[in-house]
C-alpha cells in the first residue's frame, strides 16, 4: 500500500513539474513574440511605427495642435492685409485655424502701452508663438518674450535692425524673426518725378516715436536730391496732431508721399481730404492707400508679405527651425498702383510707361 501511495505521489509531482515547464515555455514564447512584433514596427531611428507605416514622430506631427497670439498695432488696410496673408501662409503649410490652430487676436489701436499689455497677456496664456504686425507691436512682443522661450515672428517691420529685432548682418537678435516692408524709396522718387516733372518739394508726415518712419525719412533725404527734390517733413506724436500738421505741410509742398507710418496711415482719410481741397497730390506706399485716394504708389503687396511670414512661422511651430536660426526676409520687387479717378480730379494724366505695367489701376475711390 505504501509503495502504491509513493508511486502515486511521484506521478503527481512529475505532472506538476511538467505543467510548470509548459507554462513557462508558453510565457517565454509570448514574450519573444511581443519583442519581435515591437522590433518589426520600429524605424531605423528608433521610433515606433503604427499600422499605416508612419513613425510615431510623424503621426504626432500630423496630429499636433498649436495656439498663437497675433498682435496688430493699428487698424488699417495694409496691416489687415498682413494678417490675412499670415493666416493664409500658415494654412498653406497645413496649420489652419479651427482645425489644428487656435488664434488669440488683439489690436492695440496704435497705442504702445496697450501693445505691451497684449503681449503680456499672450505670454500669460502660454501661446506657442507670437506674431507682431508692425514695428511697435513686434517690439512689445519681443520685449516680454525675452523672459520666456516663446518665439516672436514679425511682419511689416520697416527696419528690423533699427528696431533692435535683428543685428546689422540680418541675423536675429534672439528668438525673433520675420519680414520687412522696407519701402522702395528710389523707385518711389523716380515715379513721382515721372508724374510731376515740375515738382520741387515733397512733404512727409511721420510719428516721432516710430523708428521705422525715421529710418525711411533718412533714406528719402539722402536720395531726393538725385531726382531734384527737397524733403519737407513734419513730425507728430499722436493722431490728434494730424489735422493741424496736414494744414501746415500742405502749404509748403508740391505733393505728399506717405510712408508705412501706422499712426499716419490710420488717419490717412483726413490728410487726403485736406490735400484734395488744395489740389495737392498724395502718393501712397502700398495698394490699400491708392485704393482709398492716393494718386499712385510704387508699393508692396502686404498680403504676399504676410503669406511669406506665415510660412516662416510654420517652420518654427513644427520645430524645423528656431526663430534665432532664420534671418529676416524682405519682398524686393515693388509694383506700380495708380488711381485714375484721383488723377482726373487733380487734372493729371498718369504716364503710359507706368500704367501699361501697373499691377492694378483703380477707377474709383473706395470709401
From TrEMBL:
Name of the protein in its database record: ABC transporter substrate-binding protein
Spans traversing the lipid bilayer: none
Region described as Disordered: 31-58
Coiled-coil region: none
Top-rank taxon, per record: Bacteria
A matching Pfam family: ABC_sub_bind
Entry-linked CDD domains: PBP1_ABC_unchar_transporter
Cited InterPro entries: ABC_transpt-TYRBP-like, Peripla_BP_I
